[in-house]
Write a structure and sequence with these properties.
24 helices; 22% strand; 6-stranded mixed sheet; 32 strands; 918 residues; globular
Length: 918
């Protein structure tokens, strides 16, 4: 059939049932993304005869004789950008950028620019990164990008170097690559049972499907080496409890059989024809029940080498610690409060699903292109699993469509490599949206019992916690998440007596994993809610209780561990953050109280502290080269997935080298082209990666100045970098000429330096809400949202604000809209974006964001990271505001209207908070 794509006539033959999205991508228009294939996210939005449609729902045959416009055709190839593209660049209305093309296509459509509310226009376009404020600003025409000044880029709001490619659809995410000859598409048969043993697999009918090449079961896996899908530099912190394909399945959705076929359709059809016989085993879904003596054992027979604390009790990791004596502290207390809080699982919902591509080149080397936060650690894991020579494996990442911790796992790469090594053919595996919900990882569900004691003046005398986490069927990050959860929620308060017991427990649920906040989010929720309860018992304003007990400059940071670690308060902005939030909440700004006597209003706040970097080994190495044209190239292994790591590292280099950021090009996340980097997680992109760039830039600057001094005969003290040259007194030596002379003399103008996550500073965040709660329906309306952060020297204010807003949005979603449901059989009941609601633009308030004015003595150029920490105080602040509005303490998340309604209707039936007065 005939149609026109971006002004170009095309003749295509769509397959039966094919949608327009896949047709366009097969024609090479990769700006059309797959986020859901269900019409829920809008990443695939294109114009059909100038009207925006979700191309994943639009049948390809209906495009006959129509004009199709994708993001690539919104502006001429060599001409000016469309005004909406310009506006998104000026406001930097994106972070990872995966949703950007679809959002621009909706916003730029003439039929959408007729005065309708923006929330209605964009109701079909989701963003998981930005919190929508930057998108709103872009559409309204606000400009946030500042001028790029040579040598002065740190502290300025400069745009991402990938911005132009994102707004024009030229940015290449992992799946955006033309088909490779002989490519095999992978699909898997997943377990329908929460716990079972595979008895028999019948694959004969599936092998008869046209296009099916190979089918693999556990018997086809070489070596059968146990591993963990989690990636850490110190692999000993995670259990080796996983096999690539296993005879025992431990959650609904675990992979059982792998199919490799010439097309995705053939692979899906073959999966439907495979028959698997199972012996059903007893399952357990609650971690408290899993620790009982009569519970089914999930990892029977695993020995100490697996690094599981107590497999016979389903306990992955058990932690007990105490500083001082909590028994004595509670004896000393005039007031004690005790309550138990529960948090639920939260999927990451990155709009780019997990996917990988593996292939061999004629030299025999294996290459893996993947959407990973940790390409170097992924390489290490694959080398171990397949007994490869490291030199024969290349892992690389280009643009990644969101991470939040979900892509700190090896979930697709291993089976791609298995197929390529077995068949010699390239292999690609791209998860569906349903697989993202049912077969990746989530935030750990927690159950936290908190007890606090204080004197009548509010001085804390004792703090204790009992924490039980549901790590799911496999341990991956379970032990580290538990350990982190027991730290900063306590360490942020002065108290002589602190104690905690922690248990990370196996269940037959979908595995939990790394997620923004990494366990602290859950315990911060519990402790900060308990602090409000203690304030109520003391008849003291909650903010006063916090000011009295929070840590101060010079304090030793202690939680339950017997000795202080390498943490320091590199800058202290906690008190300033509290002041900023208190002042904003008292200002009267925000929305007015809705009309009607059914509404009750209240306000609440919470604080949080985050260690800047993990306590285990984390390192990064950066190389900076002077190029022939006088520009610089920074090579570093950090991955970029919307956190802005690449932009900040570039700004650091440009500031030291005295040039505009436009003179610094970046090569990232490639094990062939960049030095080693542990990975972009745990808030280390700025701290560790930025530290390595800073150190390398300083060394290269010193090289340039000394050589210029020698060549000009002027004192080195008189020389300075001017962007394109070195000026020494009255002599100016262009950098290109300096490089030529240096190479002739045998010098290489290049510098390499490493940085480590030690010592580590701490970042502070305070959030406040003013809310209205409808006492009949349970609806919660946020009237004002305020966030204050101590990020040290803010390297890029626009970008840092975006990180805060994105974290706040995820926190609000976790509390108010995101409710992942499990059936009694352990199956995810709502594995679609339509039924699991991440916030849309209409669901989120505009948050007031403020930064404390501090300069960290540890972080590069005084900076502290801000990619993780903003989410941590959001849930308790919102819960405290709801409690203040209703007079009822809701302890279990999420706080959706159906959960609030029964308690609001019958408050007398609620259990009372246990408050003991001495």
């Amino acid at each position: 059939m005939q149609l026109t794509i971006n002004g170009n006539p095309a003749e295509v033959a769509p397959r039966p049932g094919q949608c327009l999205r896949t047709l366009l991508r097969e024609q090479g228009w990769y700006g059309v993304k797959k986020g859901c294939d269900a019409g829920d996210c809008g990443a695939c939005t294109v114009w059909v005869d100038d009207k925006p449609v979700h191309s994943c729902l639009y049948p390809a045959f209906r495009a006959r004789d129509r004009r199709i416009t994708t993001i690539e055709g919104l502006s001429p190839a060599e001409g000016p950008l469309h005004p909406m593209q310009e506006q998104f660049l000026a406001a930097q209305g994106f972070q990872c950028g995966f949703c950007t093309a679809g959002t621009i296509m909706t916003a730029a459509a003439k039929c959408c620019a007729m005065g309708a509310p923006m929330e209605r226009v964009l109701k079909g376009n989701l963003c998981r990164c930005t919190g929508y404020r930057a998108i709103r600003d872009a559409i309204e025409g606000h400009r946030h990008v500042q001028e790029d000044l040579p040598g002065a880029s740190v502290g300025r709001s400069l745009g991402s170097p990938l911005g132009p490619a994102l707004v024009t659809g030229q940015a290449r995410f992992t799946a955006d690559e033309p088909p490779i000859p002989d490519l095999l598409h992978l699909k898997v048969v997943r377990s329908p049972h929460a716990h079972a043993r595979v008895v028999a697999i019948r694959k004969e009918a599936a092998l008869q499907v046209a296009g099916v090449h190979s089918i693999f079961t556990w018997e086809d896996v070489p070596l059968h080496r146990p591993f963990t899908s989690a990636t850490h530099d110190d692999y000993h912190v995670d259990p080796d409890d996983t096999l690539m394909l296993d005879r025992v399945v431990r959650f609904v959705g675990q992979r059982v059989v792998l199919v490799a076929a010439d097309s995705e359709q053939a692979a899906v059809l073959a999966c439907d024809k495979i028959e698997v016989d199972y012996e059903i085993l007893p399952a357990v879904f609650d971690p408290e029940e899993a620790m009982r003596p009569d519970a089914p054992i999930l990892h029977q027979g695993k020995d100490a080498a697996s690094r599981i604390s107590h497999p016979e009790r389903n306990v992955l990791r058990e932690i007990h610690g105490e500083n001082g004596s909590v028994a004595a502290g509670f004896e000393e207390a005039d007031v004690t409060v005790e309550n138990t809080y529960a948090t639920h699982r939260q999927p990451h919902v990155t709009l780019e699903t997990h996917n990988s591509l593996s292939y061999l080149t004629p030299d025999g080397r294996l290459h893996v292109r993947t959407s990973s936060q940790t390409p170097f650690l992924t390489k290490v894991k694959l080398v171990y699993l397949f007994n490869l020579y490291p030199e024969n494996l290349h892992v690389y990442t280009e643009r990644v469509g969101g991470g939040f911790g979900s892509k700190q796992e090896v979930l697709t790469e291993d089976l791609c490599v298995l197929v390529t090594l077995k068949t010699g053919r390239p292999a690609r595996w791209e998860f569906t949206r349903e697989e993202e919900f049912t077969a990746t990882t989530t935030r750990h569900p927690f159950r936290v019992k908190v007890k606090l004691g204080a004197r009548r003046d509010g001085t804390l005398t004792a703090m204790s916690m009992r924490v039980v986490t549901n790590t799911g069927a496999y341990g991956n990050h379970g032990g580290e998440v538990l350990g982190h959860s027991l730290n900063e929620a306590f360490a942020v308060y002065r108290c002589p007596n602190k104690q905690a017991d922690g248990y990370a427990v196996y269940t037959n649920c979908v595995p939990s994993g790394a997620f923004r906040g990494y366990g602290l989010t859950q315990t911060a929720y519990a402790v900060e809610c308990a602090m409000d309860e203690l304030a109520a018992a003391l008849q003291m304003p909650p903010i006063t209780l916090r000011r009295k007990n929070m840590i101060q400059p010079g304090d030793t940071l202690l939680s339950i561990w017997p000795h202080p670690g390498d943490l320091e308060i590199g800058s202290y902005g906690l008190a300033g953050c509290l002041d900023l939030v208190e002042e904003a909440l008292a200002s009267g700004r925000g929305e007015s109280l809705p009309l009607g006597h059914e509404w009750s209003t209240g306000q609440g706040l919470a604080l949080a502290m985050l260690d800047c970097g993990p306590p285990t080994e984390h390192r990064s190495e950066a190389r900076i080269d002077l190029l022939a044209d006088g520009s610089y190239q920074v090579s570093i292994g950090s991955a970029e997935f919307g956190s802005g790591t690449l932009t900040v590292q570039r700004q650091i280099a440009a500031t030291v080298l005295g040039c505009p950021v436009g003179s610094v090009r970046m090569v990232t996340a490639d094990t062939d082209k960049t030095p080693y980097d542990t990975g972009t997680f745990a808030s280390t992109g700025t701290l560790v990666g930025g530290g390595a760039v800073l150190a390398a830039a300083k060394v290269l600057k010193e090289q340039l100045l000394r050589l210029a001094s020698r060549y000009t005969g002027q004192p080195v003290e008189s020389c300075q970098l001017t962007g394109t040259a070195v000026a020494c007194a009255n002599h100016t030596l262009p950098l290109s000429e300096l490089l030529t002379r240096a190479e002739q003399d045998g010098h290489r103008l290049s510098a390499v330096r490493r940085a480590y996550a030690a010592p580590r500073s701490v970042a502070f965040n305070v959030h406040g809400f003013r809310v209205a709660v409808h006492r009949i329906t349970g609806q919660v309306r946020i009237l004002q949202s305020v966030h204050a952060a101590d990020a040290g020297q803010v390297l890029n204010p626009m970008q840092c604000r975006g990180q805060v807003e994105g974290g706040v949005a995820q926190g609000i979603g976790w509390v108010l809209t995101e409710d992942m449901q499990l059936t009694v059989e352990g199956r995810i009941a709502n594995p679609t974006l339509r039924h699991f609601r991440i916030p849309g633009m209409a669901d989120l308030p505009e948050t007031e964001v403020y930064f404390a004015h501090t300069h960290d003595r540890i972080g590069p150029m005084g900076a502290k990271p801000m990619s993780e920490s903003p989410v941590n105080p959001v849930a308790p602040a919102l819960a405290n505001a709801i409690a203040n509005a209703t007079g009822i303490r809701f302890t279990d998340l999420p706080l959706t209207a159906p959960r609030l309604y029964p308690a609001l209707a019958l408050p007398s039936t609620l259990p009372l908070l246990d408050i003991a007065l001495s």
